Amino acid sequence: MSKDMSRNWQSLTTSSLMYGLTSALLFAGIFSLLNISGHIGRDMVFGGLSGGLSGLLISLTVGMVDQELARKEIITRVVTWTVSNSIVGFLAGILITTSIFFIMSHLTGTVSTIQLRSIFDLPLCCSVGIPLGTIIGLLIGASWHSK
Prior knowledge:
- This protein is an all-alpha fold.
- Helices cover 86% and strands 0% of the residues.
- The two termini are 18 Å apart.
- 39% of the residues are buried.
């Protein structure tokens, strides 16, 4: 592995961990305010885990696509670069965050009763996952930059 490649992976890992931590704190706060399960501690854990995983996976996705585009020199202008990273972040954010919310809601039992779970589980995950995934994906994509 070349020195430049090693530095890129180190930068990708560091940035992804920072975005994951920031997303974890943001989502823990949002979920404690939403109070979905009725237990503030459970909502904070659910939000923190979901946000951390979402931020980490979205930033890894954006960073890997960004590095691949930089390596192939497909995109050269900064404005086009930011738009392409934002689009990748937007799409990755929606898919990753909604999927993680769906999985985490089943693992943590966020919706407490069986009747409510079957009625509200998928729409709840989509109504929370899509907007939050869009926002966090666009923010990560727009702020991501390669050297």
